[in-house]
Amino acid sequence: MANELEWIDAVEKRSDARLVGQDVWINQRTGEIIEAQTLTKEVKGDVDVGFEKLWVGHILEAVEEVGNAKMKVLFWLIRNKDKGNMVRATLDDIAEKTGSSRSTVARLMASLRRANVVRLEYGGRWMLNPAVVFKGGHDRRMNVLIRYQAMEQEDLPLKPDSEQELERMAA
Q: What's the whole-model pTM score?
């Protein structure tokens, strides 16, 4: 018993691990019963840093019909966003770089805007909604989300009426 307590003290001194107590574990596959000391360890920092968070259901609802060209455009946007979730590209740039038609890109971007997946600034800067797509820690995501929500969208049409309006939006 003394050796066990010394071991527990040593573990607690070396790390953030804390003894919870003794537990009985049952291996569901074999039925084996195991008595064990349970330790908890606090994980410091952001555990989800470095992972791309993507809420696929929300995006697929916005896309309406899933096609190869639309998915290629969508994944191009995700791969080419910066740390602030911004993509600097006109509709023509996106069409050229993805090998899609300009009309496919325009329809997809209009659908994504209506579904609040992206927002457009003049000059061809698209911001992806960090509540739907983001890579990085929680604090940075919250900062980008605040900036996204503050962006003005009312003066930009959701559905362009003409080719000239499309050109003006994404130029």
A: 0.55
